[in-house]
Amino acid sequence: MADANREKQNPTFYALMFALVFMSIGPVALMFINSFKLDVDIISGTSGLLFMPTIQNYETALCDVLPYEIDHLDYCSLKFGGAFINSLIIAIISTILTLIIGCMAAYALVRFRFMGRDTASLTTLLVRMVPPAVLLVPVFGLWNNEFCIDKATWVAEWLHDIMDSRRRRDICLAGTHSGIILVYVAMNLPFVIWILQSFIVQVPRSLEEAARVDGAGPFGVFFRIVLPLIKPGLAAAAIFTFRIAWNEYLLASALSDRDTKTVPILIVNNMSEFNVEWGVIMATGMLLAIPPIIFTLIASRQIITGMTAGAVKG
Amino acid sequence: MNAANRLTPYLFMAPAVVIMAMALIYPLGYMMYGSFLDWNPSQTIGEAEFVGTKNYVTLWNDPNFHESLWVTLKFAFFCVSIEMVLGVGLALMLDRNVRGMTFLRTMFILPMMIAPVVVGLMWRYMYHPTVGTFNRTLDGLGLPKIDWLGHHALTSVIIADIWQWTPFIFILALAALQSLPRSAIEAAKIDGATAWQQIWHIKLPLMMPVLIVTGLLRLIDAFKVLEVILVLTEGGPGLSTEILALRISRTATEFRELGVAAAMSNYLLMLLLLLTVAMFAFTRWQEARANRLRAAVEEDT
Fold first, then answer.
1. Option in A43, A45, A288 nearest B118 (CB)
2. B35-300: what CATH class?
3. Is the alpha carbon torsion for B161, B164, B169, B170 positive or negative?
């Protein structure tokens, strides 16, 4: 790119960049604006920007957690607040678990020679491609029928006592937070292991050996030397894991019950109704999109590093 | 001490192995077995009747399944090829060191990070026949309205996917471009190669390995798309946008035929396995070739 060349192309170049930015954030901005409009304004659509902004849609969406009474609503039908909390619990716990477990496995795969190492790394690569839709049938069957604690055992008795449930039945993974978390951890592990391997390889061996000479055990070396050095990789892996756990719909819809619904399920259920309330649905969509947007804005560099590491260094 | 050392890798691997065996490998085996059963959701797997390969044969002859498979292939093919052309083209155009690139890349990641459900929601609004942005704009310009999610449903779904995933290819292509050896490009420039010649004969061939892996990754992902289409069209009108993943979930939940859904999952899995093996073989071959070249160069000097 000769300098003269660049000078000449400057205006079109910036026009192109502007157009691209507009295209990629336009739809998001549109949703953001519409979430502050009343349905009347959205449907009449007299003009794009001239309207009275209102937070009514957000109030409707969050009606079950707001501390005050909302006058424009007789009955709180959309339990968005609860779903939001479910989503948070599931996404955060599964991200933390995936990172810890994935990190340890990646470290073992990179640093140790042991029996079954090749099998393990090949399996990790292969299961990366399994789509959630393929897991739907077996996970539904297993979580409902097999991964259960029989009601006759003391563990089940004890759990019933804690939860104070009226009906004595088998306690199954389906319908619990832990059930959904387990699938997400398993689904994300192959990817996290793959990404982290490329970061762990770069940690100089001499550092680890020095620590070992100073008397640190293998776990000491791992937690005090390796983990701090691969922080960028951990950040990238954390964002990707959180994103999948936060956004996933299909498996959550198969495994959750009334009390463990996550936000994507709520949105899909409200979309399929005949008369879509655009304002409210856009507000819920916006609330679901906020955490990923924040991550993008503060950690875009880590995301890009993670993406290139995950794809390029096969 | 020695025994502890030998156990260490297994201790590090154990949690991952247990979780993946329990929630990935075992379910996959369970599904393989389930695909040979006549099985509905109210039965446990033990109560279901063994029917051999009936589910596979039924699917093999089912025109709806063919339609769905064909839609999936069309969707994946058009999405990935258009995204590759656009993404790589943009990367070639924008590969220069100017201010604003970081900002552009940040804004570009945004669509990928947002939930597919929300992406579907935004596009469903924009495609809306009367309220939607596109038809309103067309109307304002005096042009006829387009029936986005009716007659052109598949195209509309593909456009939404292109919006979301072109940036992925753009960013990877840009990373590949910026890691190319400067010397090759300088040499070409000194020899008087035009910008086009540089792209065709130097940059694209050098980027090829990364591009092929990127394309295959994207292709594998294109077979996983479900939520965007579910929210946009629910597979309709008719079967025009019912990709395999969606059909699996409908067979399981609406038609309540878990055995058939499992058999369908197996077909999809085989397709993806083929792609993954292709990608794996390609990277291996690439490494082997690079090693051979390096060895040849060392012999020469």
1. A288
2. mainly alpha
3. positive
